[in-house]
Amino acid sequence: MSFGKLRIYTKEPGKEKSNRPIILNPGATTKDVAEKILKGFSQKVKETKIWGPSSKFPAQIVGLNHKLMDLDVVEFKTK
Fold this sequence. Notes:
By secondary structure, the protein is mainly β. The N and C termini lie far apart (about 35 Å). It has a five-stranded mixed β-sheet with strand order 2-1-5-3-4, with helices on one face. It contains one helix and five strands. The protein has one helix spanning about 30-35; strands spanning about 5-10, 20-25, 45-50, 60, 75-79.
C-alpha cells in the first residue's frame, strides 16, 4: 500500500486496464469506485468483475460491497 491509500484501476470490457488509478481510502468497496466514477453510477451496475489481490481468481464476479485491496482492477457492466 502506498501512503495509506488504495490504487484501484478500472477497465472496460474487452480492453486493457486504465493507466491512471482511482485513489481511495483503505476499506473502500466496489460501490465506492462506481460512485467516484460518476455519482449514482452504482445503481446502474449489473455486474462487477475484479482482478488482483482481493480476488480469489481472475475475473471474479463480486457484489458492490466487496472490499478492495491496493492494485485491484475493477470492471463494471451496466444495465
